[in-house]
Amino acid sequence: MMMSLSNFFWTMLRSIDLGPSILHPKIQKPFRLTAIHFSPYVEKVRWVLDLYQIPYVERALMPVLHFAVLPWVVGLKGKKDSQSSRFSTPVVYTDRGECLSDSSSIVSYVIDRFSSVKPGLAFDQEMIAFDQYCKAEVGPGLRKVFYHSVLQDRNLMRKLAIHNVGPIQAKLFDLSFPWIKVLIEKGLVVTEKQSQISKDQLRRAYDRVEKMLSDGRPFLFGDRLSAADISWACLGGAMCMPSPNEGYGAFLPDLEIDLRDRFLDLYAFVKECRQHRAGQHALFLFSQYRNVN
């Protein structure tokens, strides 16, 4: 019943014609984003859609529950890679009916299609290579470190659901949490050993970004904001647990309220990341270039 209602309202939402975008008069209806709402990969896509003022509607989901929805969204169009299944998010349906199912592919599509209308992000081959590094090395490590701690606290995961999705889905997530926890841990190989390995990988990534910024440049590849900066801010900077007030487009656990007393290791690592030059760069990008209000 819940899925039927969900599909009914989603179908109604898809049929809404918002009229042409002010910036992009040829867009007659909004893009449709299906997403694990707090995912840094999804935040990367939202950031670029917002930057280019692309109208879109988002269907917000929680992890594992998204597997009940994605097959109906992507059909046979989803693509599997080394980091995700073909039913992973984000997925975007464009106004032309094109199905895009990878954060980097979505970003490239938006830049290629709309840069002639609104000059925006730099995205050359060197930047694309860095974006792929973040996607393949940084994002997966962040997930292992994050889930290794927060999955141990059902109350925190309930709070994460309440602040990121609707009440019915949040309740279903909570009721299903015991087996969701097992599926996430097995699917992402979330263990103590992998968490420690991932922390070391993230430290190396942070040091790499610090070195890139060591000559005083304002952005990773020079004097202009690039898609590589956004990729780093989302996939690397999410380890700083930025709040909506700091620019993040979804709810993440609060450093002081949610982590300090319950997860000392994660709290210390987040503090380390926030104090690092690379973490400060990510937080700067969120505060200055990511307007979620």
Characterize the main sheet.
4 strands, mixed
Residues in helices, as a percent range: 40-55%
When the domains are counted, the total is 2
CATH architecture annotation name of the largest domain = Up-down Bundle
The CATH first-level class of the largest domain comes to Mainly Alpha
User: What's the arrangement of strands in the largest beta sheet?
Assistant: 2-1-3-4
Radius of gyration: 19 Å
The end-to-end span amounts to 34 Å
| Percent of residues in β-strands | 5-15%
Instruction: Report the total helices.
Output: 13
- What structural class do helix, strand and pairing data support? mainly alpha
Strand runs, count: 4
Mean pLDDT: 86
Question: What is the helix/strand order?
Answer: HEHEHEEHHHHHHHHHH
Stretches where pLDDT is under 50 for at least 5 consecutive residues are 1-20, 80-87
Oligomer: single chain
Shape: globular
The fold-level CATH name of the largest domain is Glutathione S-transferase Yfyf (Class Pi), Chain A, domain 2
Concise synopsis of the structure shown:
This protein is mainly α and 293 residues long. It has 2 domains: 2-114, 3-Layer(aba) Sandwich (Glutaredoxin); 125-289, Glutathione S-transferase Yfyf (Class Pi), Chain A, domain 2. It contains 13 helices and 4 strands.
Structural description of this entry:
The protein is mainly alpha-helical and 293 residues long. It is 55% helix and 6% strand. The longest helix has 26 residues, at 125-150. Mean pLDDT is 86; it is low at 1-20 and 80-87. Strands 2-1-3-4 form a four-stranded mixed sheet. The radius of gyration is 19 Å and the shape is globular.
